[in-house]
Structures are given as C-alpha cells and as structure tokens.
C-alpha cells in the first residue's frame, strides 16, 4: 500500500488545486494542515512574528478548512507544532513515504519540508507561471520591467485547471486532531476572528470584477488610502492559498473579452505579475533577502538595532499624521493600502534612518495578508537594496495628494480635530525636511 501525505498549507481551496487531484503513484492520500507556532509566537529582531489577530485568523481558517472536509465525510488532519516533526509523526502512523505539497517561496518553509526526509512532490499551484511556463532562475531578469517586457505583449499564464477530485483520500477520524493541537486551539481560537476563506475570496472576486465593475477604475483608485472598492483586497486570499492567482487572472481576462478592457484591467494583471516576479526573486536568492543589503555582497545577517524612533513608529506616534494614521489602521485592522505601505516604509527608512528589515518584521507581525516574498521584497525595493534603486517619498506631498481634505487622518487619529488639509501639519517633535518646504507652504495656505 503506497501512501503519501498531502500538505494543504497555502492550498486551502477546492478550485484550481492540483493537490486534490488523482496521483497515480499512490494508493491512498492522507490530507493534513500544520500550524507551526514558531512562525507565530517566536521573535525576530525582538519583534513577535505574528500578532494575536494574525494567529487567530490563521487558526480559524484552518479549522474552517477541516470542517469543510468533514462535511464531505473526509478526514483532514490538523496538527499544531513543529512542521517537520508533525509530518514525520503522521507519516509514521500511516506508513507514508512521500509528501505532496504546494511549493513554498519562503526558504524557512521549504527547509521544513526538505527536513522530513520524505520523497517530495511539490506543485507550484500559487504562481501564474507554472509547468512549462516556469522561468529559469539562472536567467531571471534583474528588474521587473525586463521581466515584464520579456513576456509581453502576449503574456502567457497557466490557465486554471478543471480537476476531478481524487477518491484516494483516506484517514482515521480518531487521528484528525491530537491532544497538543486541541489544547492550542482551546487557548488561542476565537470565534470573532476574521474568516479569510475560499468562499470569501470568490465572493470578493466576483463582486469586484463583475458586480461593482471596480476593475474598470482600478488604476485610478488603487492609490486611495481606504474605501470598499478602491482595492481588490485579493491579497488576503492569495497569501493564504484560498484563491488561485491563475483563476483571478483568467477572470480579469474573461471580463476584458466579454465586457471591456482598459488601462485599469491591464493594471490589475500588471500587479499580479509584480507579485509573480517577487516570488521568483525570493526563490532565486532565498535567505539572502534577509541580509541588510539583500543579496548584494557581502551578506550581512547581523540583527538590526532599533531606537526610540522605531518604537514610536510602531505605535503610530511619530508626530507625522499621515504615517501615524496608516499605522493605526494596520494595528486595528491588520491591513494597510499599498500607498500607505509605501509611505510609512519610506518614512521609517529615510527620515527615521532605521534598518528596513525592522519594518518588514513589523509588517509580518500585523498584516493579515502577510506573504513572505511580497513583504520582504517590497520593503527591499523601497529601501533600494537587492536590485533596485531607493524610493524616497515626500510625505507632505503624499498627504496633499492622497488625503487632500484630511478625512483619513481624522478617522484614524480622532484626537486630530483640525479642519481640512491642515490636519497634516507635523507635530513639533518631527524633524522637518528641506524638500517638504514647498508643500508645507501649500498646507499653510489652506489654513
């Protein structure tokens, strides 16, 4: 009897999921998900890996996935503990010699799978470029522009697969949950946590594209700091594997063909391709991304040393309203707009002169859409390390452009009651920058 474990971490969906299909080499498949506390409760640079909000959301997602299997009269094994140890224990219980899983991008997660010693079969189900479209890492372009131009104008993307669900899945109900996992769940699970599952993903996708037709104004609205339909919010579901990027891409293409195509429909695919590029960059350079200058030699993995300015930034108490409002939004909701992320990152790196890795670790802690490649590569991109040039933003200009009436700041900083754009005026403790001065004059003229 040939058995294989099938690890559904980052593959929590029924659509376009090769892990669910028939696997000819095996007689039985054992479904499992693992939550590794080390990825949530330990620290890096003195910063906890995950907030309670992020841990609770992930735990609720895995419990929901297990319940979906139960509704199909199938067993999904939920384990909480060291990933390698949990997989080896289950492999021993079921006499399995192989492990099937979604191919990760995070070096840490890849090493966990490799350390099992089981025969690995990895399927890259969360990338746009799969199978024969997979890029050669040795010749991967050094910039996104070159990567994009290499594949346009007729950009080929793996079409979502219509797969027959395998009848090979087997499991003993008594082994679905062990005592250690049950104890962890009773300690950390909360029913009020956000449920970012496949049903929510597909509902959001359908509404954004077909009902609200927000895809038609995406390029203009994507820089908004908040708003229900300014951003797709697919990031939550792409990060946890409950939404297939190929399915999302194809839905946009279908809309373009059946309704209309414009610069905005192209732009949302453009940003999916950005996500794709960072996935391959992470695979190309692996743990070098966590060096101070990313993969630029010499590699420097020494821990960054924060100061009081970083602590105030983390609390949203820098005295610069646009930065503080965005941080407060993140602390309360687990999300921040793309424009907000760029602004707070720029301020931390260039004005506060902190190591970019501190900001990346803080985002990892709080973002409900945390994705290793997207997070760390985007921070390196702003900092100008790796293969990019530095991108410093003028925060006063950004405030005037993206929150011209100050509504966003007053919402997240209710203590700020100044009317209009003048609410963006920096507090006395903020060191004013010379290149801000023309825009500070504009603010003063609005008093």
TrEMBL record:
Annotated signal sequence is: none
Keyword check for Flavoprotein:
yes
Tell me which residues make up the Photolyase/cryptochrome alpha/beta domain: 2-133
Name its co-factor(s): FAD; (6R)-5,10-methylene-5,6,7,8-tetrahydrofolate
Keywords (alphabetical) are:
Chromophore, FAD, Flavoprotein
Q: Where does FAD bind?
A: 218, 369-371
Q: Does the keyword Mitochondrion apply?
A: no
Cross-referenced InterPro entries: Crypto/Photolyase_FAD-like_sf, Crypto/Photolyase_N_sf, Cryptochr/Photolyase_FAD-bd, Cryptochrome/DNA_photolyase_1, DNA_photolyase_N, Rossmann-like_a/b/a_fold
Looking up SUPFAM superfamilies in the UniProt record yields: Cryptochrome/photolyase FAD-binding domain, Cryptochrome/photolyase, N-terminal domain
The record's GO molecular-function terms, alphabetically, read: deoxyribodipyrimidine photo-lyase activity; DNA binding; FAD binding
Give the cofactor note.
Answer: Binds 1 FAD per subunit.
Query: What family does the Swiss-Prot or TrEMBL record give for this protein?
Result: Belongs to the DNA photolyase family.
Stated name of the protein? DASH family cryptochrome
Q: Which organism is it from?
A: Rheinheimera tangshanensis
């Amino acid at each position: 009897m040939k058995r294989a474990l099938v690890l559904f971490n980052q593959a929590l969906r029924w659509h376009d999921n090769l892990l669910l299909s028939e696997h000819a080499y095996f007689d039985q498949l054992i479904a499992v998900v693992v939550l590794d506390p080390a990825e949530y409760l330990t620290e890096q640079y003195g910063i906890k890996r995950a907030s309670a909000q992020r841990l609770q959301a992930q735990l609720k997602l895995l419990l929901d996935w297990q319940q979906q299997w139960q509704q199909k009269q199938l067993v999904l094994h939920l384990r909480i503990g060291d990933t390698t140890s949990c997989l080896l224990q289950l492999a021993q219980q079921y006499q399995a010699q192989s492990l099937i899983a979604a191919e990760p991008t995070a070096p840490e997660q890849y090493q966990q799978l490799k350390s099992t010693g089981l025969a690995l079969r990895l399927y890259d189900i969360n990338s746009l470029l799969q199978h024969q479209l997979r890029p050669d890492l040795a010749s991967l372009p050094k910039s996104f522009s070159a990567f994009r131009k290499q594949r346009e104008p007729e950009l080929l993307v793996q079409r979502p697969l219509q797969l027959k669900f395998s009848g090979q899945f087997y499991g003993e109900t008594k082994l679905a949950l062990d005592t250690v996992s049950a104890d962890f769940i009773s300690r950390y699970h909360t029913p009020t946590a956000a449920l970012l599952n496949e049903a929510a993903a597909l509902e959001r996708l359908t509404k954004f594209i077909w009902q609200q037709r927000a895809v038609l104004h995406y390029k203009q609205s994507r820089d908004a700091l908040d708003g229900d339909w300014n951003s797709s919010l697919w990031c939550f579901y792409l990060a946890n594997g409950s939404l297939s990027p190929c399915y999302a891409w194809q839905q946009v293409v279908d809309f373009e063909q059946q309704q209309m195509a414009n610069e905005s429909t192209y732009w949302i695919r453009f940003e999916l391709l950005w996500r794709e590029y960072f996935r391959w960059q992470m695979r190309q350079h692996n743990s070098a991304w966590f060096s101070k200058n990313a993969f630029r030699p010499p590699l420097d993995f020494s821990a960054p040393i924060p100061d009081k300015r970083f602590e105030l930034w983390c609390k949203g108490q820098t005295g610069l309203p646009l930065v503080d409002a965005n941080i407060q939004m993140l602390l309360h909701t687990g999300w921040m707009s793309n424009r907000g992320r760029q602004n707070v990152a720029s301020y931390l790196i260039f004005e506060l002169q902190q190591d970019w890795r501190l900001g990346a670790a803080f985002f990892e802690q709080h973002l409900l859409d945390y994705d290793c490649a997207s997070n760390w590569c985007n921070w390196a991109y702003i900092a100008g390390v790796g293969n990019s040039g530095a991108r410093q933003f003028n925060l006063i200009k950004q405030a005037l452009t993206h929150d011209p009436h100050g509504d966003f700041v007053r919402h997240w900083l209710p203590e700020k009651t100044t009317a209009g754009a003048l609410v963006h005026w920096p507090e006395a403790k903020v060191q004013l920058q010379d290149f801000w001065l023309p825009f500070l004059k504009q603010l003063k003229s609005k008093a």
